[in-house]
Amino acid sequence: MTSLQVDQQYDGTEAVQSGESPEGGEGYQRGLGARQIQMIAIGGAIGTGLFLGAGKGIHKAGPSLILAYALAGLVIFFIMRALGELLMYRPVSGSFSEYAREFIGPFAGFVTGWTYWLFWVITGMTEVTAAAQYMQFWTKNADGWLNQPQWVFALIFTVILFCANLISVKLFGELEFWFSMIKVTAIVGMILICAGILTIGFSDAGDTASVTMLWDQGGFFPNGIGSTLMTLQMVMFAFLAVELVGVTAGESKDPKKVLPKAINTVPWRIAVFYIGSLIMILSVVPWTHFQPGVSPFVAAFEKMGLAVGAAIVNFVVLTAALSSCNSGMYSTGRMLRQLALNGQGPKVFTKLTRNGLPLIGTSVSAGLMLFGVVINYMDPGRAFELVVSFATISGMWAWIMILISHIRYRRRADRGEVPQSSFKAPGAPYTSMFALAFIGLVIVLMALDPDARISLYAAPVWGLILGLGYLGIQRRKRTAGTIPENSNS
After folding, report:
1. Read out DSSP for 330-393?
2. Cα separation, 99 vs 108, whole angstroms
3. pLDDT value at position 5?
4. 3-class DSSP state for residue 456?
5. Angle at CA 310, nearest 5°, toward 304 and 312?
6. Distance between CA atoms of residues 392 and 261, nearest Å
7. CA 47 to CA 456: how far, in whole Å?
8. Who's near 251: CB < 8 A, 6+ residues apart?
9. Which of 85, 63, 65 is nearest to 73 (CA)?
10. Would you say 107 and 87 are in contact if contact means Cβ atoms under 8 Å apart?
11. Tell me, what's the pLDDT at 424?
């Protein structure tokens, strides 16, 4: 299917609804400006994986976790440049499923769209619950209206973010801008404090702080290279959602100008926020002081004798969780609408409000996120952990589809079958092949890790559900006479 053929599918409904050409935002309003897109791109790379998850990685690999983040960051940059080339070829909302459908096949687009939707629904469930848990830091000893059970705050946060996503895409962008600003400010502040300790020597850690702690506490690989490799899965999970900037393509005011700039900031974002912060923290606090389940930022503040740091980090982690849930509200409605436009989901999801918002798709997704509040209230145990763990593998599926789509696009573009992109990925398609191999390695490592293996067990079950659903859609189309009997479309 060529770009022209794909674009022709959007003649009519969405153009009428928005007053725009189908070539534009597919009925959406282009309400996201450069400032918001940049911060969405930055915020997508910073989440609880860094603020909380890095503690487990440091405990397992020591200072060599820095190398794991650097290597994974390089792969993420290759993924984002592959996505950028596809976006400049055809900027479209719901980009992952669209490119998979065009360059791999209809079934790949179907699986990608529904899997990415599921990823954000599950992420929304877990993050809104996490946000409610973080509220207990301030409310557990409070009196009056603040002394509420955890599920009440989960419900409040879900309703607030849902309403914000139904007002306008601009409000979503503004919320994400400030959520990201808080996260960025916290990390930059931590880096500056650590730099001051290393140079001036203030705080309780001033007498021992030194960059030599990166290799003096048992070496750079204190637990061996094998332990460092086993952290790669956790490191990659920390970068999940960095691809969200691609979903904004249909609602960016100037996508062909804004999106390349946002994607090109990936290297310095990873260098500063991940590698830079870890180098600073591990130069001030020995890696042996960090434990799984404890934020390395909190541990570092405590070592410095700055007790207020725990409250600050708790607030930052709260905003990170709300940011993730906010992104889930935004992306799920767009994914459902894109699937419906392609005949791979209920037609009711194609409808937009006067503000160009996918009300029904967002409402259904938010309703399922509320189910996460119910599960949390009922203490689900291992059943809920199974659902949560599946979010990781479903998120990486989007990366795999981006890379395969990019490789196939480049081949067709080189043959002159589709237009060349104005934003070519350097070193492609070999960089995309390398990134695919790296993700394959991460999946193998997941299979070797008992804690991560559970997500691989769930994947075939979801695949079977999608396969049956796709066959049902195809059978219904053939019955209706919309596709010929021998068609695979």
Report:
1. HHHHHHHHHHHHTTSS-GGGG---TTS--HHHHHHHHHHHHHHHHHHHT--THHHHHHHHHHHH
2. 9
3. 38
4. helix
5. 105
6. 27
7. 23
8. 25, 28, 29, 30, 31, 32, 93, 169, 356
9. 65
10. no
11. 92
What is d(CA 374, CA 155) in angstroms, rounded to the nearest whole number? 9
Contacts of 240 (CB under 8 A, 6+ apart): 47, 49, 119, 391, 392, 395, 396
Rounded to whole angstroms, how far apart are CA atoms 347 and 334? 13
Alpha carbon dihedral 272, 197, 52, 67, in 10-degree steps, equals: 50
Positive/negative CA dihedral, 325, 327, 332, 337:
positive
Q: Could you give the domains of the chain? A: 29-415+426-475 (1.20.1740.10)
Q: Rounded to whole angstroms, how far apart are CA atoms 437 and 484?
A: 37
The label of the residue with tokens 């070539």 reads 23
Q: What is the DSSP string of 113-159?
A: HHHHHHHHHHHHHHHHHHHHHHHHHHHTT--GGG---HHHHHHHHHH
Amino acid at the residue 393: I
The pLDDT value recorded for residue 222 is 93
pLDDT at residue 6 above 70?
no
pLDDT value of residue 141: 61
CA-wise closest residue to 115 among 444, 402, 326: 402
Of 245, 256, 322, the closest CA to residue 37 belongs to 245
Cβ proximity of 251 and 93 under 8 Å: yes
pLDDT in tens, 401-440: 999 999 999 999 999 999 999 899 999 999 999 999 999 9
Q: How far apart are CA 391 and CA 123, in angstroms?
A: 7
Say if residues 378 and 47 touch (Cβ distance below 8 Å).
no
**Tokens 């436009």 -> residue:** 341
Residue 1 has pLDDT above 80, yes or no: no
Residues 339-355 have pLDDT tens digits of 888 888 888 988 888 77
User: DSSP 3-state assignment of 32?
Assistant: strand
Query: Would residue 73 be called left, alpha or beta, if left means φ above 0 and alpha means ψ between -120 and 50 degrees?
Result: alpha
Judged by DSSP in three states, 207 sits in: coil
Residue 448 CB-density burial (10 A; 0-12 exposed, 13-18 middle, 19+ buried): exposed
Taking the C-alpha atoms of residue 403 and residue 77, their distance in angstroms, rounded to an integer, is: 12
Place of tokens 């030599």: 212
The pTM assigned to this predicted structure is 0.83
Q: Are 444 and 436 in contact (CB under 8 A)?
A: no
